[in-house]
UniProtKB/TrEMBL annotation:
Membrane in keyword set: no
Keyword terms of this UniProt record: Ubl conjugation pathway
UniProt domain Ubiquitin fusion degradation protein UFD1 N-terminal subdomain: residue ranges: 26-123, 125-199
Descriptive protein name: Ubiquitin fusion degradation protein 1 homolog
Positions of the UniProt region annotated as Disordered: 232-255
GO CC, one annotated term: VCP-NPL4-UFD1 AAA ATPase complex
GO BP annotations listed: ERAD pathway; ubiquitin-dependent protein catabolic process
GO MF term (any one): polyubiquitin modification-dependent protein binding
Keyword match Cell membrane: no
Length: 285
């Protein structure tokens, strides 16, 4: 098929006027956990969301004109598990890639399994929602600051992943429940709102009723018994002198004094106690 007129004009002067669209990197590697990486222990890889790839991958990415930041889609074709990540270094042995343990656990990968790696472009994150996998996460004073510091080692987030954050010599796992504007987002140089769901196993504390809520005392019951004449406190009698039928079962009804609020002592001085006694003058006899 003959080349198009536009393509011919573009190459008329010995150079291509139309830049080729970037092609994605799509290849297979054997994956291993970071603990299998030769050399010193790499904790910076273990507590982040980036992988180590071989130098040949960098050569391919350069020839394919991949745009920065370099983000990748990882697929375990055996289980159809998918996640996304960034790249930290290109120092792995040829044909191998090294992943954080939590990433291999999410993808259900064993040491030496094949993994499909494809370069990809992701939208910038605007919102994410996490669920701690332990109630111990509630002991952290400022969880958002701890999460923000931990996410600095990540390049992207995928809905459904369980990521690991290290804080105070402890590993806290958080499930990514939701990300916006898509199920996978880039978190490099972004302004992202963060929310937390209740941790796994968390129960709302039961509301304990206070004693004053359980027993409400009527102020009239605290009033002293009435003294002196009280109207309608006596008992009725029959005119024929016979006993009433309900006399055995009848009982005296207690008449309660109407509750009245006391008058405050406006002359009271703080720090003084005043004892009031109803004393009678001694009899002269």
């Amino acid at each position: 098929m003959a080349p198009s007129r536009a393509a011919a004009d573009g190459k008329l002067f010995g150079f291509n006027m139309f830049a080729d669209a970037p092609r994605p990197l799509n290849t297979q590697y054997r994956c291993y956990s970071v603990s299998m990486l030769p050399g010193n222990e790499r904790q910076d890889v273990e507590r982040g969301g980036k992988i180590i790839m071989p130098p040949s991958a960098l050569d391919q990415l350069s020839r394919l004109h991949i745009l920065f930041p370099m983000l990748f889609k990882l697929t375990n074709k055996r289980t159809n598990r998918i996640t996304h990540c960034g790249v930290l270094e290109f120092v792995a042995d040829e044909g191998k890639v090294y992943l954080p343990y939590w990433m291999m656990h999410n993808l259900l990968l064993e040491e030496g399994d094949f993994i499909q790696i494809e370069s990809i472009s992701l939208p910038v994150a605007t919102f994410s929602r996490f669920q701690p996998q332990s109630v111990d996460f509630l002991d952290i004073t400022n969880p958002k600051a701890v999460l923000e510091n931990g996410l600095r080692s990540f390049a992207c987030l995928t809905t459904g992943d369980v990521i690991a954050i290290k804080y105070n010599q402890r590993i806290y796992e958080l499930c990514v429940l939701e990300t916006k504007p898509g199920p996978a987002v880039s978190i490099i140089e972004c302004d992202m709102n963060v929310e937390f769901a209740p941790p796994v196993g968390y129960k709302e504390p039961e509301r304990v009723k206070k004693p004053d809520e359980e027993m409400v005392v009527d102020p009239a019951e605290l009033m002293p018994e009435p003294t002196g004449f009280v109207a309608f406190r006596g008992e009725g009698n029959r005119l024929d002198g016979k006993k009433r039928k309900d006399q055995a079962s009848s009982s005296k009804t207690d008449v309660k004094v109407t509750y009245q609020r006391g008058v405050p002592d406006y002359n009271y001085k703080i720090g003084t106690l005043r004892f009031i006694r109803n004393s009678r003058p001694p009899s002269k006899e």
